[in-house]
C-alpha cells in the first residue's frame, strides 16, 4: 500500500499532497515538513530509500523519493510495495505529467494542482497502484479532459476569454516567474518493464 | 430579476478561479495568512450563491487551501453539493475535494450514499470512475456496507476501466465491512484471470494485500498464482505474486520447494532489477522456511548471496541499499554465508549515505562473534567519533549496545572492556540514550558478579567527574548515567577503594542541579555508603572522631536535599538526616553502631526478568479490574503521578527493560498492570524472602581493602579517566589470546555458563569455528534472571489488538452457504436503534456473524449452480442499467432493491440519531438523494429561484417525496421495506411528519420541527429551529405563488430575508403541478425554549386552471413542542454519570400505566419522537440523554415492570423538563 504521495519543491512548499489515510490538517503539514526535512538534507547521489519518518506509520513504512529539478516526488509506502517498482512508478508519473503538460515545470504543478490530482487518480487509487502503462493513463486523462471541454461548450467561452484577458493584462505571466521556471528534465532511465 | 441573473453570470467571469488564487498568494508573500483569510471569506460568499459553477470554483480553491494546511471541513456540505452536480466537470471537483478532506467522522458522508450509488450506475464510465476513486479515499463502514453490492456488480462491468477500479476498491470495502469478503471473494478470484491485464493486476494487488495479513486463508490460491507466475509477463503482477509467495511459504514448505526452481530461472533470466530483487527475497524466504527441514540448498543460498553481492557492489546506491536489506534476512538463518562478506559490509559503514550505513549496521549485529566483537566495536567507536548528526550517532550507540548485549552478552569475553566501552560512550554529547547506557551498567554490574569491583571503581570515577557529564546542558540525557553510577557505588560499596571520597563526591552541592529521580538515588546511596564507611572506620582502631566527622559531613550536606522541591528527594533526605543525627548521638556515647547501620541495607537484590512481573499468575478469584475501595473521583491522576515518581526509584532497571514494551498497551491493560504492581509492592518482603539462598549479609565481606581493583590510568586529569582504556583492552585481549593458545593444551576449557532464558540462540550454531578457543578473560558468573514461580511460558504479548486486518481473517475456502451468496443484508435489530452511535457501529459489525455461521452447511453443487445463475442475472441487470440510465431517472440495479439494504439514510443510526449534530439534520432534509444541489438550495426560503432547473425538478418531485419519507420514518421504513429477515417483531412505523392543515386544494404536512442551531455556520446568539413543511397539491390544477406567513410572537419569530417587514410572508420557492408534493424549510428563531409554543399562520396561493386562476388561502397552527428543542446528542456513560453526580440537575418523575409494548419499542419511541439517545441499557432499565438547543442537559432513567413504566428525569431547567415529560406522556397515551 502507498500511504501518501507528496510533491514539494526545494524549499519545502507543498505542490501536491495526497494522503491515503486520514490525518488532521496540522498533522499533514507536520508530515510534509518532516518529510521535507528528511529528504532535503540528503545528497544527490545517495539512495532513494529512506526509513520512514516518525509520523506516518513508523518503522514499517519507507519513504521512496526522486528529485527532479526543483521538485521532490515522495511516496510513502509499506513493505508490500517493491521499492524499485515504486521508483519506476514515480518515473512513469513524471513522464506522464511531462506529456500532459508538454515540458512540465514546477509552475504547471503550482497552477494546476487539480489536473495533477486527476492524473494521479488514474495511476494510484486509494493507495493501490491502478495503472502503470503510461499510454493508458494518458488516454483516460485526455478522454476526461475532452468531456470537460464539451461540457463547458459555448457557455465556457466567455470565461475562457476572460481568463485569457486576465493573463494578458497582468504583468506576471506564470512562465516569467523566476522560481520554478526550470522545466523538469525527465531523464531517460532504464525502463522497468 | 432577469437582469440580476445576467449580472450574476458576468460577475462570475471575474470571480477568482484557482489560478487567480494561487497567483494572489504568490503576490502576497508577506501577508499570506491575511490574504488567504480574505480569500476564504470570498469563498464563503461564493458558496452561498445559487450557481453550481460558482460553488464548484469555490470548492476547487478550498481543495488547494486544504493542501496548504487550512481546515476546510466546514465546507463539507458544499462539497457534497458539488459532488452531486450532473456535470462531470463539477462532479470531479467535488469528489476530489471530498477525497482530500472527508474521513470517517465527517458527518455529511452519510448523505452521500445515494449520490454515490447513482454515480456508480451512471452510463458515463468516467462518472463511475470518479466516484470510485473518491470513494476509495473516504469509504466508511456504513458506505461500505450500503454500497458493497453495487461495487460487486461493477466488478463485472463491460468496461475494463471500471472493472479494475471496482476490483481495487473492494479491498477498502473489505477492510471496512469484513462480512463482504466471503460473498465477494469468488468473483474477485475470477478476476485473477480477467482478459484485461489491468484488471488482472488489480485483482492480484487486492489478493496480495489481503493475503499479506492473513496468509493461511489464501494458501488454496497458490496453484492459481503459480500458473500466473509462470505465464504472466507483466512485471508488476509478477512482483506482487512473488511477494505474495514470500508470505505464503512459511506456512507451506512444499510450496517453497516447488518455487525454488522457477524463481531461480527468473533470477537468471530477468533483466529487470526490481523483479530480480523480489525473486531473491522470496528465495530467501523459502530457504528460511526450509532451513529447519532440509539443509541442502546451499546452491540457492550461494546464488542469492552472490546476486546480492553484485547489488551491493553496484554503483547505484538504491541497489546497494536493497542488497544490504536482503542480506540481513539471510543473516538470520545462514549467518555463515553472510559472514564471508564481512569486508564488503564494513566497507559500507564508510559509505556517505546514511541509509546504507544504517543497513550495514543492522548486518553487523548478526556478524559478531567472540572473536571479532572487540574489533567491530572498536571500528564503530571510531564512527561514533566521526559521526556528525546526533541521530546517526545515537543509532550507532544503540547498535553498539545491542551488539554487545545480544543473547545475554554471549559474545563478550571481557566485561572490563565492556564497562569501559560504556564509560566511553558517556562522553557523547547530546545523546538521548543516557537511559540505555545506565541500564546496561546496572544490568552488567548486577548480573556479572565478578565485574562488580571493577565496575564500582569506574563508577566512582564517573561520580567524581560528574561535572563533565552535566556541565553543558541541563536537559542532557547523559546524566541518567549518574543514576546508575550512584546506585552501583552505593549497592556494591564494599568494593570501593575510597568510599569516603565517593561519599563526599555524592554529596556535593552541585548534585542538587540534577533531575529529581537521580538526586533521590544519590541520597539513598549516600546512606548506603555511609554505612560502609562507618564499618571501615569503626573496624580500625583509630579514634572515634573520624567516624563522627563522617556523620557530621552528612549532617552538613543533607539539609540541601531536604529543601529539594522534589518530594522523593525531600522525603529520603529528611529521613536519612534524622537517622544520621541519631547515629551521631550514639557515636558520641561511644556506642558501636556500624553493624546496625549496615543491617539497614543488608540483603542482595536479584535481577528480575523483564517480563517477570507480567507473568505472575493471577490467583483465582482475584479480579484486578475491580476497585478495592471506590476511588474518590479526581484523585486518580494524582495517584498516578505519585506512582510514576516512585517507579523511578523502586523499579530500578527492570522498568527500563520493559519500557518499550509498555508503550502500546491500552488504558485497561495499564490499569491492570498498575494493580499488579501495587500487589507486588505490597508483597515486597515476601519477594525477597522467596530466595533465601541468595541472601547475603554484607558483613561477610571483611576488609574492603583486600579486593583487587584495577589501577586506573589517570594521566588525563580533566577528561573522564579511563577513556582510552577500551583500546588497551583490545591489545591486552590479543596478547592474552596468544598466550592462551600457547598453553591451550594444558588447560582444559572449563567454561561453565548459565544462560538466561532470554538467550535466543545457542552458542554453537552461530559462532565461527575457532570460537571454542577463546576463553573469557575472567570467569564470569552471569546471574540468571528471576521469574516468578509457576509463571506461564506464553509469549503472546506482542499483538496489536487494533489491527483492522484481524477482522479479515476469514476462511475463504469453505463453500458459500446459500445465505451467504448475497451480501449480508442488514438485519433488523430494534435494540440498535437505541444505542449511541459508537456502540451501534460495533453491533452492526458483530451481530450478523454468528447468524451467518449457523446455517452454513449446504450442498456445494447447488451453490455453484446458483452462482452461475446469479452471474447471468448480473449481466441482465447491467444491460437494464444501461438502457434505463438513458432516461432522466437512472434505474437502480434490481439486486440492490431486493437484497441490499434499504436506502442508506434510513439506517438505524440515522433513525436513532436523526441529528447527531444539528448540521446533519439540515443536510438530510436539504439533499434529497436525487436532488440537484441547486434544488436543495432552492428549498431555503431566502433564495430566489432560477427557472432553468424547474422542469427537471418537477419530474423528480414524486420520487423525492418518497425519499423524504424515508428520512423521516427511518425505523419504520426499514421494517416495511426489508422483509427478508425478521427475528424480532418489528417496530411500528413512526413518522415525524404530522398533518398541519388541509383543504380541498392543498395539504400541509409539518415535520416535527427538526432542530438546527444554524444553517450556514455563523453562530448567532439566539437559537434556531428549522421547520420542514411538505406541500402536496391535491387538486387537478396548478398551484403557484405560494406565500407562507406566520404571526410572530414575542418569543418566536420567523426569519425573513433582510429588508422584509415583520409581517411579510415568505415566498415558497416552488410551484406545484397537480398531484405533486415538495418540501420547504423555514427557520424560526426562538428565545425561550422552556414552554411549548403555538404560532398561527396562513398560506396564500394561486390555483391556476386552464382558463382562470383564483386566490386561495389556508390557515394553520404551528405547534412547537418542547421536544422539538431537544437535539439527539450521544452521551457516554462516564460523562453521563459525571453529569448526574454534579448535582446541578433537578429531578422529576413520571409513571405510565398500562403500557404494553416491548421495552425496546418504548425506548425507540422516546428516542425517535423526543430526540433522546440511549446511554446504557441493562435489562428493563435504560438511561437516556438529550440536550436542548440552548445546552440544557436532560437525563432520563426509564424502568419498566408489569406494564408500568416509570421515568425518573433530571434536567437543569425544571420547566422544560416538566413539559417534555408531559409530551412523553402524551406520546404514549396516543398509542
UniProtKB/TrEMBL annotation, chain A:
InterPro entries: AP_complex_ssu, AP_mu_sigma_su, APS3, Clathrin_sm-chain_CS, Longin-like_dom_sf. CDD domains: AP3_sigma. Residues 1-147 form the AP complex mu/sigma subunit domain. Signal peptide: none annotated. The keyword Membrane applies. It is found in: Cytoplasmic vesicle membrane; Golgi apparatus. Part of the AP-3 complex, an adaptor-related complex which is not clathrin-associated. The complex is associated with the Golgi region as well as more peripheral structures. It facilitates the budding of vesicles from the Golgi membrane and may be directly involved in trafficking to lysosomes. In concert with the BLOC-1 complex, AP-3 is required to target cargos into vesicles assembled at cell bodies for delivery into neurites and nerve terminals. This is AP-3 complex subunit sigma-1. It comes from Oncorhynchus mykiss. The lineage of its organism: Eukaryota, Metazoa, Chordata, Craniata, Vertebrata. The gene is AP3S1.
UniProtKB/TrEMBL annotation, chain B:
Residues 783-800 have a biased composition (Acidic residues). Residues 907-922 have a biased composition (Low complexity). The keyword Phosphoprotein applies. Residues 626-668, 729-991 are annotated as: Disordered. It comes from the Eukaryota. It is found in: Cytoplasm; Golgi apparatus membrane. GO terms for cellular component: AP-3 adaptor complex; axon cytoplasm; endosome membrane; Golgi membrane; presynaptic endosome; terminal bouton. GO terms for biological process: anterograde synaptic vesicle transport; Golgi to vacuole transport; neurotransmitter receptor transport, postsynaptic endosome to lysosome; protein targeting to vacuole; synaptic vesicle budding from endosome; synaptic vesicle membrane organization. The keyword Coiled coil applies. It is a peripheral membrane protein. Pfam families: Adaptin_N, AP3D1, Mu_AP3. Its main location: cytoplasm. Residues 650-668, 730-741, 801-860, 934-946 have a biased composition (Basic and acidic residues). Residues 665-813 form the AP-3 complex subunit delta domain. Residues 742-763, 861-874, 947-966 have a biased composition (Basic residues). Belongs to the adaptor complexes large subunit family. This is AP-3 complex subunit delta-1. The lineage of its organism: Eukaryota, Metazoa, Chordata, Craniata, Vertebrata. The gene is LOC110524334.
